[in-house]
Amino acid sequence: MAGIKIDNSVLVEVEEFGRPEYQGGGGANKEQVDKLLNIIKSSPYLTIMANSATQLKTGDYYQNNQQYYQGEHYMEGFRLETGKEKEGAFTTQRMVKIKQTLLENPDKHYYAVFAAGHELRHALDRVYDYFSGPFLDSMIDKSKQPEPRDYTAEVVALIRYERNSESRAELAGFNAVVSALWEQHHRKPTWEEIYSAAPEYMGNFIVEDGNVNNPVYAPNPSLAFDKDGYLSLDNARNLEAIGARFFDNPSVPDGYPDRIAAQAIRAAIRFEQQEHGSGSKPCFNMQELGRHGVDKASLQVNDVDFGLIRDCSPQPAAAYNPTAVEALRAKPAAGSHTPEPKPEPAPKPEQKQEQEQSAPSFDFDF
Fold first, then answer.
1. Which helix (H) or strand (E) holds 11?
2. What single-letter DSSP state applies at residue 231?
3. Taking all residues of the chain, what is their mean pLDDT, rounded to a whole number?
4. CB 51 within 8 Å of CB 9
5. d(CA 217, CA 200)
6. What are phi and psi of 188, to 5 degrees?
7. 3-class SS at 209?
8. Closest to 176 in 3D by CA, of 39, 292, 283, 78
9. Residues of 163-190 as b/e, b for ≥16 C-beta within 10 angstroms?
10. Alpha-carbon span 108 to 142, nearest angstrom
11. What count of other Cβ atoms lies within 10 Å of the Cβ of residue 274?
12. pLDDT in the model for residue 321
């Protein structure tokens, strides 16, 4: 992969990154521009991605046989990410954003390589095409159906799409770092070298074992590495392993499933009200969303108004009432002389307590 030349289309976008008119609005100073260029050049894998993202274009979009908008490059430029919680982002304007501190700290070089690889993968996968196409189409179709309109399937579909997208982006970030290490050492990097390049990111890929004085590094056995240390973005095993460790991570408050579900629910509210008036409430199976990692409290943090939606989770079956059933069985038919059975002795207090504890419980408070 060595010897990959950076395309002029990338150089144009890097130069634009440093224009004075963009400084203060996501633009960079000369030192940050030079660092970004060095980051892209340091990893042949990253260079290939940047070349493709600035050369490939979406198709022109036509509506009623008239051109609605011209096609755009998969990536339209670079900007600084100034948010405290984000290392990078890919925006609806098709901008790749890299955290400012990653471009200023020499010790964060490989972190910046990883972040750029992650966001460029989103650009190449054209992630926003799904939002503006299949997702919105399914929402509009559902809003036109008769009651009850249950949008759960649309929310789950978006969560699954995002899970796959984020897994691919993480794998691309990892590969970008491995490529940069190959370029630096002119050989396959060791697992320790890969891990040490960006420890905060590499824990999902490389296992650190042993003690503090004598750590041992090994590939995550859940992943399928090739002979050169890379990970395929199309391998189902890799996608599932990274999806479970990165996307599904329950230790992250207000994580991916919650934020994505909140976006989808807010969109459903909007389409529902546009079609049926402000009093109409879309329906969601909150139990099913819970199985996909969605938490009610986190939805509220993400501006979901539960007064504007309905919970259509299936209700539990009526509880078995042995007293009522036995009374019906004991009641003699008209004209019969069947004697009444003797009442069963009441269970001992400790037996009753044990029965109540082992009974299944249903929690609808997500």
1. helix 8-17
2. B
3. 83
4. yes
5. 15
6. -70, 125
7. strand
8. 39
9. bbbbbbbbbbbbbbbbbbbbbeeeeebe
10. 46
11. 12
12. 56
